[in-house]
Amino acid sequence: MVITVPATSANLGPGFDTLGLALNLRNEIEIIPSEKQEIEIYGENADFLKKLPRNYFVEIFTEHYKYLTDKEPKFKFKFNNKIPLSRGLGSSSAVIIAAITAAYEAAQVPYKKDKIINLALNYEPHPDNITPATLGGFCVAKLRKNRVYFLKKFIPTYLRAVIVIPNRPISTQRSREALKKTYPLKDVVANISSSSMITAAFFSEKFDILKYIVEDKIHQENRMKLVPDLFKVREIALREGALMSTLSGSGSTFFNLAYKDDAYSIYAALKDNFKDFNVKILNFDNLGVKVYN
Ligand SMILES: Nc1ncnc2c1ncn2[C@@H]1O[C@H](COP(=O)(O)OP(=O)(O)O)[C@@H](O)[C@H]1O
Ligand SMILES: N[C@@H](CCOP(=O)(O)O)C(=O)O
């Protein structure tokens, strides 16, 4: 069995813990029945991941597989990772969603994607990465009374993401701990209106308005100060025609939305100015987690 799961970009600026979308940058995990448990890790941060005392995927997979079957798992896991760690591209959500999905598949217990999202909440208590990692597309998610409610919209194929991945990681947990605990009413209103406009723009496919309405007053500017070059990244991307330019999740990656025809000039300008950063043009993913048996 092979499971593939996409990277995600959460928040989209003002939609803190609410908006997210999936990118066509996927981790792939092969799971093969075996006499003894074995792990092989290739790709992004493989050396770091190999050194960890416990593998996060195997831990979550084992917990669910044992619960579903009452048996110890006996599998070989082969990871081919493309999603960089702690760069705001939802690497932890990708692991969680893939591991729970894999456990249900290996145990041959039927499930719905809704169930996977709600189980994932036990590991990541904000739904803006786990929802698009599961469903793909542009997702709006709301957590209420410990349950995730969500709506998804397909992202048109004439759009691209131009992402800038700095060489510095930011831990999501640590950067959340540094957030202010209270906000002035005008800042809250700015985020509600901007986030609602982004949602309306994606659902009605009226993307031009994004250039004028995206602002965040809750988390983004403070987090950007950890990698000050990001202010210049945003300025260049918007100057070169990006529809919106926001911190991806808690950073350090910057996410730029563009029409297909504008993506290359944004990419070239960013690459030219930030030689140490990894700049990529990506398609969007509209499928979410996928299983091949
Ligand atoms: N492919 C992977 N395999 C195992 N663990 C992973 C993998 N990707 C991420 N993780 C775990 O998730 C952590 C990163 O989570 P986090 O700081 O929330 O970053 P991100 O913004 O990428 O989600 C890593 O330190 C590691 O513990
Ligand atoms: N809403 C969360 C999103 C974190 O995304 P990640 O990809 O950085 O894990 C937040 O802003 O903390």
From TrEMBL:
Tell me the ranges covered by the GHMP kinase N-terminal domain, including all copies.
61-137
**Binding-site residues, ATP:** P84, L85, S86, R87, G88, L89, G90, S91, S92, S93, A94
**Which InterPro entries does this chain map to?**
GHMP_kinase_C_dom, GHMP_kinase_C_sf, GHMP_kinase_N_dom, GHMP_knse_ATP-bd_CS, Homoserine_kinase, Ribosomal_Su5_D2-typ_SF, Ribsml_uS5_D2-typ_fold_subgr
What is this enzyme's catalytic activity, as reactions? L-homoserine + ATP = O-phospho-L-homoserine + ADP + H(+)
Give a yes or no for keyword Translocase in this entry: no
Major location (coarse): cytoplasm
> What superkingdom does the record give?
Bacteria
- A GO term for molecular function: homoserine kinase activity
Biological-process GO terms, alphabetical:
threonine biosynthetic process
> What enzyme category does the UniProt record give?
transferase
Pathway, per Swiss-Prot/TrEMBL?
Amino-acid biosynthesis; L-threonine biosynthesis; L-threonine from L-aspartate: step 4/5
Gene3D superfamilies linked to this entry: 3.30.230.10, GHMP kinase, C-terminal domain
Q: What is this protein called?
A: Homoserine kinase
Species assigned in the record: Lebetimonas natsushimae
